[in-house]
Amino acid sequence: MDLYTVIVCTAVVSAVLACTMVSLYIGDTRRKSALYWCAAGVSFLLSNLIAIFAMVFDIGASLYPMLPNAFYIMGHAALTAGIAEYVYGRHYRAIIPVTFFTILLLHLFPLFEQSVEIRMVILSPVMLMFDGAALTSIWRYSRQTNHKACWPIITTLLLFMAQMIIRTIVLLDANNTLALENSELIQTVGSLAVIVFISMLTVSFITLLSWDTVVLLKRASETDFLTGWLNRKALASIASKAFRKAKAHNSAIGIVMFDIDHFKKINDAHGHHIGDKVLQHVSQLAQKTSKRKEACFRVGGEEFVVLLEETSIQELHQISELIRVEIAKAHWVENNTSISTTVSVGSALSQDADKAWNDVLDRADSALYSSKRKGRNCATVTELFEVKMT
After folding, report:
1. Which of 68, 209, 315, 360 is deepest in the core (most CB within 10 A)?
2. Catalytic-role residue among 113, 181, 294, 302
3. In Å, how far are 70, 163, 164, 388 from 349, measured between CA atoms?
4. How many CB atoms lie within 10 A of CB 46?
5. Cα–Cα distance between 234 and 368 in angstroms, integer?
6. Does the pLDDT value for residue 18 go beyond 50?
7. 303-350 pLDDT, tens per residue?
8. Could you check whether the bond before residue 65 is cis, i.e. omega within 30 degrees of 0?
9. CA 269/CA 254 separation, integer angstroms
10. pLDDT average, residue stretch 284-292
11. How far separated are the first and last CA of the chain, in Å rounded?
């Protein structure tokens, strides 16, 4: 394959990257990182289009290789800015034009413009710096979040950086008889590496953004839209994992179960709209008290569960009573109507004899009904503990 064909192919895969990213952004405008990666694709495309134009027409040494290099390095800067936006949610868009104009200015120095070796010595570390920053960020992110979809981009960056280091060493080897100006083979190999790199980038970015979509859909399917708490489906999955973990580590899980006293009367007296507001207020107070957002569930109309990991009977008792007291003393005003409510609480701690997390839930449910039988607005921890209404 001749060099011209390779550059044309590189332009095509760059265009595919840009079009794919802009399509993904249009599909979901929250994907800001896709805009940066689209800019990277456009930069790579312009770099190759100018190179093609230079091979067909004489555009002068002042523009080639100055513009292709500037656009190519800018593409790596845009790639890194996109990773930073994806991982940290921060915008580093300024580095893209700054990189472009810095490379242009470097080409104004005669020695830099005329020497391929000097350009390599300076530009290769710049590319490695951008790609290395992107690799470090996405690697840390994958370790912290267990984000398996990060591996394609990690692999892509590692392979490209490795080939770039090897290729630069070979080209700068004083004993190597191949000089870059006279070696179309080496240029072709480098361009082929760029084709593979950009193609893998496209696949990697699609994988990242698609994974996020799947996670959002899964989260939506497991979240109660009214309170923002997780639902019964999520409880089954999370509680099962927590129970197995507790068994393995000789610790205990606790389940705090509560529901709103006389909630039907609230709906009948004030309407379902006010009833929804009460559900939201109660869930917010309970979550603030438990301070464990990831372990809060709405499992029925007015029924809620808080899952505690590595807990004790004392902590279970304390949180159960705090939830009851905080809700009992709260008053809300909705449509000029003062509303107050109470909750009945039942809690249970896992025991060695339990075979599944459902055993703990059943005891918490029994304790909840015990609280109701004793007048409501009280908290019962299994059948052994009762906190009297104050």
Report:
1. 360
2. 302
3. 64, 57, 58, 20
4. 20
5. 21
6. yes
7. 999 999 988 888 899 999 999 999 999 887 777 777 889 999 999 999
8. yes
9. 35
10. 79
11. 85
- Relative to beta strand 343-349, strand 379-381 is parallel
Q: How far apart are CA 372 and CA 386, in angstroms?
A: 12
Q: Determine the Cα–Cα distance for residues 48 and 54; give it in Å rounded to an integer.
A: 10
C-alpha triplet 146, 152, 153: angle, nearest 5°: 95
For residue 169, what pLDDT band results from cuts at 50, 70 and 90?
confident
- Confirm whether 302 is a catalytic residue: yes
Calculate the alpha carbon distances from 362 to 304, 331, 347, 354, 367 in Å. 14, 31, 10, 11, 9
101 token code pair: 């104009």
Give burial (CB, 10 Å; 0-12/13-18/19+) of 225: exposed
Q: What is the pTM of this model?
A: 0.72
**78-82, 187-191, 221-225, 291-295: lowest mean pLDDT where?**
291-295
% of residues, the chain, pLDDT over 90: 56
Give the type of residue at 238: I
Read off the amino acid at residue 145: T
